[in-house]
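Structure ticket #2291
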Amino acid sequence: MIKLRVNDKSIEIKNDFNILQLLHHIKSPQEGIAVAVNNTIISKNSWASKTLHENDNVLIIQATQGG
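Resolution: structure written out below.
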């Protein structure tokens, strides 16, 4: 298990989790969001290949509509 922060909350996940697995784990939608790891935006087509590491800081931003 490794520890990381997701939107300022500390969580533990299995080693070798990727972003897509993390989104499933935390029950996050996969549409209309952006994901950054350690202040770097990760493109959606890289979510399945981007492995997370101990102490990574993940930010998930949900797009909203408004005016």
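Closing remark: The chain has one domain: 2-62.
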